[in-house]
Write a structure and sequence with these properties.
Blueprint lengths: L5 E4 L2 H4 L6 H9 L5 H4 L20 H10 L8 E3 L5 H4 L6 E5 L10 H7 L7 H10 L2 H6 L2 E5 L4 H5 L10 E4 L6 H10 L7 E3 L22 E3 L1 E2 L16 E2 L2 H13 L4 E5 L16 H12 L6 E4 L5 H5 L2 H10 L21 E5 L3 H7 L12 H14 L5 E6 L6 H13 L6 E6 L21 H19 L6 H19 L4 H8 L38 H5 L29
Parallel strand pairs: 1-2, 1-3, 3-4, 4-5, 5-6, 7-10, 10-11, 12-13, 13-14
Antiparallel strand pairs: 8-9
Helix pairs in contact: 12-14, 17-18, 18-20, 19-20
Bound molecules: cobalamin (B12) and iron/sulfur cluster.
């Protein structure tokens, strides 16, 4: 048998579903490849193949490409495999190698910035794994056309590396409607076809045009919605038309995954509460209940994982969480000792909290809080977190540091929010602003590590201190870790980033706050916050800008109230956001 005409692949790190761990993937996107062996289990990068060498699971987007190709080619012509089997399949008859790129150079939301913390010129595991594909000797030998697509494909254009990797075509956007014609032109070497193809919004497919994938996806990803109408300016899915997949479509995808050995389904969405939503983002609880019950009833499916949710619906109608909990939490593979579930199970949907600054929130993402207003965001977060935690939803919360124009006053507001969240159960992941392609902020500058302020460093390391405590207990930092952090500061950190990281790092290493009060903004020693000591001095607050507390006449929440983080807050929706897409 000759070699297949088309070979599809994805990097080992992006295809991995090791222990169902999305953490593992996030780590691959951030940890420097040079130190990868110390941080991640090497077996997590070994993926399973079928006896004939085809991949058992790859990212859902690549499965979609395969499905579209299988409408016109046979299974013999289209092979999906991992790096270690490229040699087996790519040969003289191979015309195209198509590569999926979720985050190929690790520059989405500055994940590569994390690797830079360990030294200049380091690249994350993801990037190293991607390079192994594009520089593979078999590609050099047989020179098939290289086609790259996926949500992170834009990174190669941004980094200007198309020539270096001999990329023939880079496709950015949703392809279901346009791929067949485009692919024919690629195969024919049509000279009028652009090298960089950006699929416009007007060509985004309807759900009817999106087929059910033919084979199993990494993590058992099954899309339940696509696109989001909340309109955040930094966000890619905000530019997509909002769509919900019909239940039959979802169930067929679940069956495909289960048939090929998936025991878990990851419900992919920008916000689970968008599924079959009513007017004005009204959550459709019965539709969600039916969908969840149906998915978990499929033989072979043992666990469910959610991707993203938003906070506002949780506050507007806490019964959403009450009703969905029995259908989600007992079926999660994640456990935490603080969960009150009989089996200590918890669910950890991803929520973009982004900032504590009402001012930045109002400029860049006001639709996210709908039906609440930007100045209510802090309260929405605290109230929502209380409801989520009560039901063993311990979310994975992301923040964006360095949004354009972020001032010290803004960072203090984010620190205030973080302080208010100190008893919350969840993971708090600071990311750095990166202007994603095709978003309304694509022309803006990225946040730069070297320009991080002392307050931003404090925010960054305080998040990681919370995470350390949440996942490893308050007194569990090892001696090696406690000594290693100051060593890092003296040997590398201060040279790379200046003195500003010193005290935040010390906090992270476990140095008691009483020794650092003078140097840090947040004070965890029990110092009375209600006197406003941690508020920005009035002259540093932007002209015309009031803190949330001033605006609402609120006092700081006293620490004693924070066991029930949202308890002191009673909020009502406050109008319609001006800009939703
Ligand atoms: C599930 C998911 C994950 C999962 C699983 C990922 C996986 N490896 O399978 C987890 C949670 C692990 C994850 C992690 C991350 N993710 Co993610 N993820 C998603 C999510 C929710 C769904 C992805 C999906 O399967 N969609 C369905 C498929 C059909 O869509 P698609 O992949 O875009 O594919 C279409 C096209 O892109 C194209 N296509 C895809 N592949 C190819 C290949 C070729 C050759 C061609 C021609 C076309 C093509 O065709 C498809 C059909 O139109 C999306 C949001 C979304 N709704 O897409 C975010 C999303 C893709 N993730 C994102 C990010 C930033 C990350 C992280 C970097 C987060 C972080 N800071 O750590 C990490 C990186 C992980 C890694 N190892 O690289 C961003 C990407 C932003 C951007 N434009 O760069 C998104 C858009 C979320 C967001 N709201 O911002 N992710
Ligand atoms: S809420 Fe905002 S950040 Fe989240 S998916 Fe929607 S538009 Fe994007």
């Amino acid at each position: 048998m000759g070699s297949p005409k088309i070979v599809l692949t994805a990097s080992q790190s992006e295809a991995s579903e090791w222990k169902h761990s999305i953490w593992q993937q996030m780590l691959s996107a951030t940890i420097p490849a040079k130190y990868g062996h110390k941080w991640i289990n090497p077996t997590s990068l070994i993926n399973e193949s079928w006896p004939d060498g085809r991949a058992k699971y790859v990212p859902n987007g690549l499965r979609m490409v395969e499905t579209l190709l299988l409408r016109e080619y046979s299974e013999e012509d289209v092979v999906v495999c991992y790096l270690d089997n490229l040699e087996k399949f790519v040969g003289p008859e191979t015309k195209v190698i198509a590569i999926h790129a979720h985050n190929p150079l690790g520059i989405s939301y500055a994940t590569d910035v994390y690797s830079k913390i360990a030294g200049k010129n380091l690249i994350p595991i993801n990037a190293a794994e991607f390079l192994k594909i594009v520089t593979h000797p078999v590609i050099k030998k047989f020179q098939p056309k290289i086609v790259i697509g996926g949500p992170g494909a834009w990174q190669l254009e941004r980094a200007n590396r198309l020539d270096e990797f001999n990329v023939d075509y880079l496709i950015d956007g949703e392809i279901e409607r346009v791929f067949s014609d485009m692919f024919k032109r690629m195969m024919a070497g049509d000279p009028t076809l652009e090298r960089i193809i950006k699929v416009p919004k007007s060509m985004q497919p309807t759900v009817e045009e999106i087929p059910v994938v033919r084979h199993r996806s990494t993590f058992g990803v099954v899309e339940i919605t696509r696109g989001c109408g909340r309109g955040c300016q930094f966000c890619g899915p905000a530019t997509k038309v909002g769509r919900s997949f019909p239940l039959e479509h979802i169930m067929e995808s679940v069956h495909v995954n289960a048939r090929e050995g998936a025991t878990e389904i990851l419900l992919a969405t920008e916000d689970m509460f968008l599924y079959e939503q009513g007017a004005n983002f009204e959550t459709n609880i019965p539709a969600l209940e039916t969908m969840l019950k149906s998915v978990k009833s499929v033989p072979g499916i043992e666990t469910l994982q959610t991707s993203h949710i938003t906070m506002a619906p949780v506050v507007k109608d806490p019964t959403i969480i009450e009703r969905l909990t029995p259908l989600i939490v007992p079926y999660s593979h994640v456990q935490h000792k603080e969960s009150t579930d009989p089996d200590h199970r918890m669910t950890d949907p991803i929520i973009g909290l982004e900032t504590g600054s009402a001012r930045l929130f109002d400029i860049f993402m006001k639709g996210k809080a709908y039906p609440y207003k930007a100045h209510q965001w802090r309260d929405v977060v605290l109230k929502g977190m209380e409801t989520l935690n009560k039901h063993n939803w311990f979310p994975f919360c992301t923040f964006i540091i360095g949004l354009p124009g972020e001032t010290d006053a803004d960072t203090r507001e984010s620190l205030n929010l973080l302080y208010d969240l100190r008893d919350a159960k969840g993971t708090f992941v600071p990311t750095f602003f990166v202007p994603l392609e095709n978003t309304r902020m694509q022309q803006k500058d990225s946040a730069k590590l070297i320009e991080m302020t002392d307050l931003q460093w404090e925010f960054f390391y305080t998040c990681w201190k919370y995470n350390l405590h949440f996942w490893h207990g308050k007194s569990n930092a090892s001696m090696k870790f406690s000594l290693g952090v100051p060593l890092y500061y003296y040997l590398l950190g201060r040279k790379l980033f200046g003195n500003g990281i010193k005290y935040p790092l010390y906090r992270f290493a476990g140095v008691p706050d009483r020794f650092m009060r003078k140097h840090l903004y947040l004070d965890f020693t029990g110092y009375k916050r209600s006197k406003g000591v941690m508020n920005a001095p009035v002259d540093e607050i932007l002209p015309g800008f009031k803190t949330v507390r001033e605006e609402r006449g609120l006092n700081m929440i006293d620490a004693s109230q924070l066991h029930h983080i949202g308890a002191a807050i009673d909020i009502a929706p406050d109008g319609i956001p001006a800009a939703t897409t």
